[in-house]
Each structure stands twice: as C-alpha cells, then as structure tokens.
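Review form for a predicted model. The reviewer records the input and the model, then writes brief findings.
Reviewer: anonymous (R2)
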Amino acid sequence: MQNQAIFLMGPTAVGKTALAMQLAQRLPIDIISVDSAMVYRGLDIGTGKPSNAELAQFPHRLIDICDPLQPYSVAQFCADANYAMQQIWQQQRIPLLVGGTMLYFKALQFGLAPLPAADATLRQHLSAEAQQFGWPHLHARLQKLDPETAARLAPHDAQRIQRALEINIISGKTLNDFFTQQHETTLNYEIKSFALLPKDRAVLHTTIAQRFMKMLEAGLLDEVTALRQRNDLNPELPAIRCVGYRQAWDYLDGNCDYETMCERAIAATRQLAKRQFTWLRTWPNITKLDNSSKNILDTIMKSVLDSSNN
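Model under review:
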C-alpha cells in the first residue's frame, strides 16, 4: 500500500464524508479534507463539517487550519496536502483525500499552472467595473472569453472571476490553456480516483434543499451572527463568500427576507453541484460510483487491495 493515495470526489451533499469514515473503519486510512470552506475555523454548520465526535473517531487533516480573515490559496493547499500525505505514508498508511473542491484535486494531481502574476492596476479596474455593474456582468464577459472556466464559476464568485479575467486579458489565454501545459506531480504515488455520484440529480437537489434547512435548524444564522460580531470580517472575504454564508450574511444585513435567503442559498448550492459535475465529466482515469449502490465499499476496497498485491 506504500505510496497509494485515494481521491474521493463528488458533488456537494452526495455522501462523501460518510463514505470516507466507513472506509477508515476497514482500511489503514488517514483522511485529508479537500474542501476550501472547511479549512476555516468557525465555519462549521454551513460547511457540513463532521461533528466533534466524528472527528475524534476519524481525524481529518486540513480542517480548521485557517482564520476566516486569511484567504487560503490552492498553492497553500497543495503544500499542506503534500506534507500530510508524506506523513501518512511514513506511518505506512493510505491518504484518503475527500471533498468537492475540484481545483484543489486538479492542482494536486497535475501541478500548478504557470499563471501570470497579478496586475494591481488591472485588478483595481476590474473591481471598479464590478462595483458599477455587478459581478454577474463580469461573469458574462468571462463567458465570452473563457466559456469553460465561466461554466465552473458562480456569477458572484468575485475572486475567481476576477483572476480568470485578469489571466485572459494579460496573456490572451484561457485557464484551460494553462492547464494543458501542466505535468503530473513528481511525487511518486499511485492515485485511485473515485467519483461518488447520484443516480438521479433531482434526488440530489431535494437532498441539498433539505440539508440547508437542517443547517438553519442547527443554528447556521447564529454561526454567521458570531462571525459578523468579530467586526474584522466582511462579505468580500473568500470565507464569507462560501455558499450559504454569503446568503445568510446578506439576510442579516437586511437585504432580503428569510424565504429569499433560503431560495438563494439552495440555488447557489445546486449551481455548485453543477460545476462539480462539469469538472468530473472529463476527469481522467476515474471510477464512477452510484451513491445508492450497496457495493461502494467493496468496489473501492477491491481496487485498493488489488493494487497493493501487484
């Protein structure tokens, strides 16, 4: 099993975390979270973090490692994940990387693209344009220049829309152009990639709606209120722009009513799932698993153990 790694990917609310913990009961596995929201402390309910009891039984690396005031980059993730994987291998165990932040998986497996450096003047110009016309306007602009990247981004994902436009304007190339220049990581490990997918997307949409309502019942608005009371956080920070938190913050600002907040949060989560599907559609060498199947554990274990015996 030395230097194997398991990637367990899939859209939000499909059951990845529960499956990871089941696998950890049957294989010598240590779990690494691949989630750009779970890295932040204080963002617990809305990110669907495992409970304290679950984390005590099944520790997850790269959860609660960052303050919401501090943006966490894909480069930081790659460094942290690589370090964690090396530690796990040294203990003769298997890293299980589980989550839905597909860009993190992509960068970890294929390396970081040689992207152009940020341009402060251009960034300021794009921010001013967004302030005047709104981020959906810039998203529509990106759709014309780089439709593939635009399809993966929400119309209000300010940070990523800005960066994608910046890259295109500076270089004349799309993000995918840079991705095609990437090479697989030089780390010597064998990746077993699995995508946990719903048999019926309509069922997933229902699950997403039900899950958000349960988050509200569990105290999501209290959680966001506590973040607001810090006074050093604002809606433009990547942590606060996370799905669910952005809409709850907007509601607490008095910009929409409760029902509208719920509708927007559920719609944004469904859009997130759609973008995750887009990533997975062309992912190389991936085994797709039906999340309603009773044989998921056996399928993954057979794949891992077969490789160990070769």
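Findings: The CA atoms of residues 4 and 227 lie 39 Å apart.
Further findings: The longest strand covers residues 190-197.
Recommendation: see findings above.
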